[in-house]
Amino acid sequence: MRRFGMSILSICLLPFLLTGCWDLKDLQEINYLTAIGFDLEGGDFMVYGQMLDFTTVAKTEGSKPGATPVWVGKGRGKTLVQAIDDLYRTSQLRIFYGHINAIVISAKVLKDSFLMEQIEQFFSRFYELRFTPWIFGTSESIDEVFSATSIFDLSPEISILHQPMESYKQRSIFTPLSVRTYALETNEPNRSVMLPSISFSKRKWTKSNKPEKLLAINGAYAMEGEKFQGWFPSESMLGLTWVDPNSYRGPLVLYDGKELLAGITVEKPKVTIRPRVRGDKAEYAIKVAMTGTINILMVQLPEAELEREAANVIRDQIRELYNEGLKHDTDILNLTTSLYRKKNREWKKLRSSGGLKLTSESLAAIDVSVKLRRSGNMKMQLRIK
After folding, report:
1. pLDDT for the residue 55
2. Side by side, which strands form the sheet with 363-374?
3. Residues 104/197, Cβ–Cβ less than 8 Å
4. What's the pLDDT score for residue 154?
5. Are 180 and 289 contained in the same domain?
6. pLDDT of residue 382
7. pLDDT for residue 257
8. Which domain holds residue 281?
9. Closest residue by Cα to residue 218 from 239, 206, 235
10. 124 lies in the same domain as 174
11. Is 383 among the domain residues?
């Protein structure tokens, strides 16, 4: 009987050993930030937070899609901590940072090393933040960037802001950067990082004959460590496609004077930079090899001649890109980085004597080869009258 009583007592005590769920939070009781932005306004630090209604992001089968509402919060303070605290005052619910996958920093903040140091500290120390979000610069109003919609009333997460790789795979100029990649490259000596600049395209697409304001990459901010080097528009950076080993593809149009010869898509460049030290100066040679596909052929030319013409155009664009960097005292091609990695002893010697500065003669040679793999899928000549 005593044993039976002890068993009953043990069973009664077991529930008190179980953990409870009294502190459980329902998913709808938390504000999930999907993007965060930093700006400077009137001497104050501004923090912007983008939130989406996830009940409208997840569509059920057969449901009619509708515009996904976007909430944008704004906090102001003399420091980053004060600005974030100001954002908390009106957030209604607890803010969670673990779902952030886009960061936008204004040009004003990029030019201020003290503000950038605060952002870097915040992302390095706050436990909810990851190093995987995409990072952009902008000269636009950040709250307008966060309020931009997508096509077909899809979720704003289906956009260049949150999925930049999709358009980059078809038009490769500025490689999208994650926070991790940006941090690694800006901490490497003499390395110039091209931070994509996000803006609006207001006249490219229309909806029911009405212009739609959609997001676009319109250039890049050059950063060397914490030093702001300048902004470069896309039009002056076409050669970047051919010297970035991460590039997928880029268009190339060949002319003879004003006469259109051909349109080619060039893919996956293989880039080699060979540094060489002569006396107290460094010289560099670039070798680029890539393949291509003919999309348009207006004049019948031998394949070898098309390859030669394509190589000449690419060589000129790389040279123009290098000269554009010299105007802003920026090593866009990261030539000195190759010297740092391959000839570190010489790099240290030249750094101490001031011999790392690039000149028009520093880029001694550009060797480009293009191999046309196919001429497209055309099986017959179409003639439209």
Report:
1. 60
2. 249-256, 259-278, 281-297, 363-374
3. no
4. 75
5. no
6. 43
7. 86
8. 238-378
9. 235
10. yes
11. no
- As a whole number, the mean pLDDT across the chain is 86
CB atoms closer than 10 angstroms to residue 123 = 20
Residue 75 bridge partners (DSSP): 47
**Looking at the 3D structure of the chain, how many domains does it have?**
2
Look at the block and give the residue holding tokens 């870097």: 120
Tens of pLDDT, residue by residue over 100-129, are 999 999 999 999 988 999 999 898 888 888
**Alpha carbons 209 and 60: distance in angstroms, whole number:** 30
Which residues are registered as beta bridge partners of 135?
103, 177
Of 173, 174, 155, 35, the C-alpha closest to 105 is 35
Residue with tokens 């769920």: 21
Give the pLDDT confidence score for residue 59 in this predicted structure. 52
- What is the SS3 assignment for 229? strand
245: domain CATH number? 3.30.300.210
3-class SS of residue 379: coil
Q: Which residues contact 372 (CB under 8 A, 6 or more apart)?
A: 264, 291, 292, 293, 294, 303, 306, 307, 310
Helix (H, G, I), strand (E, B) or coil at 80: helix
Angle between helices 113-125 and 80-88 (to 10 degrees): 60
Whole-number Å distance between alpha carbons of 44 and 183:
25
344-353 vs 335-342: helix crossing angle, rounded to 10: 120
- CA–CA distance, 272 with 275 (Å, rounded to integer): 10
Q: What is the predicted pLDDT for the residue at 371?
A: 93
| CA quadruple 287, 290, 296, 299: dihedral sign | positive
Specify whether the CB–CB gap between 235 and 260 falls below 8 A.
no
The CA-based diameter of the chain, rounded to the nearest angstrom, is: 108
Helices (H) and strands (E) in the chain, counts: 12, 14
Q: State whether 228 and 84 are in the same domain.
A: yes
Residue 214, Ramachandran bin (φ over 0: left; ψ between -120 and 50: alpha; else beta): beta
Spans of the chain, pLDDT less than 50: 60-62, 64, 379-380, 382-385
Quote the pLDDT of residue 376: 58
Q: Is the dihedral of CA 348, 350, 356, 362 positive or negative?
A: negative
Residue 11 lies in a domain: no
Do the Cβ atoms of 274 and 343 come closer than 8 Å? no
